[in-house]
Amino acid sequence: MSSEISPLCGETTTDRPEIVNPAESPNLAIGIDIGGTKVAAGVVDEQGTVLAELRRQTPGRDPRAVEATIVELVSELGRAYRIASVGIGAAGWMDLSGSTVLFSPHLAWRNEPLRSNLERLLCRPVMLTNDADAAAWAEWRFGAGRGESRLVCITLGTGIGGAMLMDGRIERGQFGVAGEFGHQVIMPGGHRCECGNRGCWEQYASGNALGREARELARAKSPVAQEILRAVDGDVEAITGAVITELARQGDPASIELIDDVGGWLGLGMANLAAALDPGMFVVGGGLCEAGELLLEPARRAFGRNLTGRGFRPAAPIALAALGPRAGLIGAADLSRNPPR
Amino acid sequence: MSSEISPLCGETTTDRPEIVNPAESPNLAIGIDIGGTKVAAGVVDEQGTVLAELRRQTPGRDPRAVEATIVELVSELGRAYRIASVGIGAAGWMDLSGSTVLFSPHLAWRNEPLRSNLERLLCRPVMLTNDADAAAWAEWRFGAGRGESRLVCITLGTGIGGAMLMDGRIERGQFGVAGEFGHQVIMPGGHRCECGNRGCWEQYASGNALGREARELARAKSPVAQEILRAVDGDVEAITGAVITELARQGDPASIELIDDVGGWLGLGMANLAAALDPGMFVVGGGLCEAGELLLEPARRAFGRNLTGRGFRPAAPIALAALGPRAGLIGAADLSRNPPR
After folding, report:
1. CB atoms within 10 A of CB A289
2. Does A191 contact B at CB distance below 8 Å?
3. Tell me: the pLDDT tens digits for B228-254?
4. Which domains are assigned to chain A?
5. In a mutagenesis test of the A interface, which of B106, B306, B341 is the best target, namely the one with the most A β-carbons within 10 Å?
6. Which alpha helices (DSSP H) does A185-307 contain, by range?
7. Cβ-proximal residues to B235 (8 Å cutoff; 6+ apart), any chain
């Protein structure tokens, strides 16, 4: 099947007239963020600015189809910009050299040599990276954690993505799979996690956790859930974390309480991370952060209440991510220019 | 009071005849491990061998009295060896430069500039370090974790000491207080910890935890606790982790079960650390390791059962520490020769 994808090598040998200011931005990179539902691609300059962006639906789980989509996006974006390298961020574990996808939960990659496949097709250097690592790198380079020497980033989406930056390097562990903070067991025997365990942090502090708790509240037919049920026309299954976040921002007390609970779990887990890692700062991003201070205020409270040694140590500040949903593609692009040491 | 302590400067300017092979070991260091009950000091060569050792009772909590004991130990050991530097390991938090004790749970040090006090008294370079960091350094340099690029060390005593080595460096965090693995909350609302929280890991996987569980079993008047009660002549308060460890080694089934439970908690907490840190190896030391495989076997089982992503990643091996109770002083001595970068 891969032979059906046309490599872009012919295209890259010509300087095309549409190239925008190649002299001013000689080192443009494309970052591609592959999610379970969407693929986002953007041209990113050395200051972290996104010059152009495209989005596609994720074309199922077939690796060849995903590769074809990547080639299409690079080809399209490459028409107007001279692209030096391509960075791919995806949920999953990459080997330490950024060559192979060891495992990806939402895609069918298992020991997939994606990098060499793509370098052949794109005729440019390619770097694979974990999506949470990419987002953390972007926040460290251009965002809320700029220049911090010990930075922990938490990305709150359906689950929890995690990454740590130490002395300007993503700390990826011995086998490249560090930073899975969402799978610290924080409640033995607790809610089942898709990782196979029970009681993982992401079952308590994520968009999925928020939705599950809200549905449980609604099913209990509590009068406090009235507004929530009204918002989904009585369809309990339609209650998601995003619905609750929106209702909380509109002032619904039950939704605010639900987010407060999630914030408490968020702060407790961060206190655990501070005990182990002692970062200088936490940056919290991801979709759930649409809730803003409704989430962060209780998180900070629980963090302060559970930080071991509180009163005898500085408490790391907890900041909202600055780059929003583009952090992943910005970081992937930038990492392709700054391959990890 | 400090003026009562005589500095050793006069002594160090003479080459005394008792010096043992100064040419062969030009870089001897003294390591001093200050515990809540004992101070251990030893002369350590560059291969990590302890050439001489002394022990004293910890002289209460007064910093000046502890300093006097240190001077006495260095003076005594210095009679037979030419000592280039002195390393001090103690439970507590040191600042990143190794100059000041920020906080020590068992001693009265609070923002104590111990290093400059001691350098004045000892007339030699002094390095302060956390006792768990010192033990980990020793295991990495000379023991079970030799040369590992990502090593996590767990010291199981009354509580849990933790440290991580990354690329040959102790990772101490932004404020120097990383590695407090024992205070990850692993059971919200669980047993009260002396750190002020509830449910810390060290309340479930430590010598204290083992003793507490055994006393509870004995108080429940369970017939399975017969052997345990016999060993302490019916005095429940005399049941400690050390008593249970000894009984388990003699084959008492209840004591073996109690250690098995502690091993389970140990493995669960290590799985949490593996999720976050992805080390290449764990080294487990400290007094509780007298239980050997009675502890490690259930720990490995629980680790394997709770490791997130198991089956899709390598599982770090879990090894017993090799240097025993001298690891702290060996590491403190060696760190005084190899000050952290």
Report:
1. 20
2. no
3. 999 999 999 999 999 999 999 999 999
4. 2-138+326-337 (3.30.420.40), 147-321 (3.30.420.40)
5. B306
6. 207-219, 226-231, 241-249, 253-277, 293-306
7. none
